[in-house]
Design goal:
This protein is mostly helical. The chain has one domain (about 15-355). About 65% of the residues lie in helices and about 5% in strands. The chain has helices at about 15-35, 40-60, 65-90, 110-125, 135-150, 155-170, 175-190, 190-195, 200-210, 220-230, 245, 260-290, 295-320, 340-355; strands spanning about 90-95, 95-100, 105. A hairpin with a 4-residue loop joins strand 2 and strand 3. The two termini are about 20 Å apart.
Length: about 375
Amino acid sequence: MKLPRIKLPWGIDWSLFILPTLLSFLGIVFIFSVTYSQNPLLMISQIIYFIIGLVIALLLTFFDYRNLRGLAPILYGILIVLLIAVLFLGSHAFGAARWIDIKIFQLQPSEIGKVIILLFLARIFAETKDFDFKKILLIIGMVIVPMILILMQPDFGTAMVFFVTLLILLFFSNVKKIILLAVIAGLILAAPVGWHFLKTYQKDRIYTFINPSKDPYGSGYNVAQAKITVGSGGLWGKGIGKGSQIQLNFLPVAHTDFIFASAAESIGFVGSAGLILLLIFLVTRMINVARASKDLFGYYFALGWGLTLLFQIFVNVGMNMGIMPVTGIPLSFVSSGGTSMLTNMAAIGILQSIYLRHRKISF
């Protein structure tokens, strides 16, 4: 019996695999240069996370993303359960409980929540024809619930990512602009309530951002050292593993929050500018997927993820240069972190699935 011939659908956007791979490789190099003398296993674990993430991305590429539309409410419920669980079972680090220790892996529910909340919102915006204040308030409430749970960890940066994702979809949906302006005005007026949820050290970071010289040896120390590290790289950098700021341990958490400063000292202004360009190019490819999408669910997910990634890049690079408050938002694909890597690679797989199905596929 002759088996049927299968024509593989290779109409994917190769840049969506090449760019994350290149960025991840650069991240692994920077992580090694920062941690090889203290914890060389961090580089090994990052390589493992990347390989697992690549497998997840490939699997999701050939998985019809439209099936995620029906799973979105279930995933949202799982996210809420995980965010509640982390408050009681979470491992503490840097004064926060954001991870669930599952022995072989430190799961950070708020990170995977970035994809889940976008899938959930993309489904709602794709299925809703007419928006009124009641529907908008209901949607905002569904986002505020996980935001509050994340703020209780506390993790102000990730909560802000959820908020920005919501604003992006509201802006690009068919919501009447007068309603959108009213919602934004209401959220601004409610800002003092959000201020109440911030921890003392988070408020100090904002005070330090407004007045950098306020506490240079306390809350302003990280930012001051990051700015020095960026500047010490000069035009071409000091070379991988040769930066004085990094090797003498002046820069805290140089492999996570301040990985960009570590990169700037190693490869200089030219290299770090190239790193930013790679990230921006990746964002443009994601927006291209949104344009190619044949349904609103895929459009909202691709556009939302691309612009949310742009926001995270802006905040991370900005806080490394002292033009944004320190929030703990990682630099996607570059910063050390297992859950972050797996989440970003999963999003790449979904984006590939959207792009793959914008044309007729024959099997």
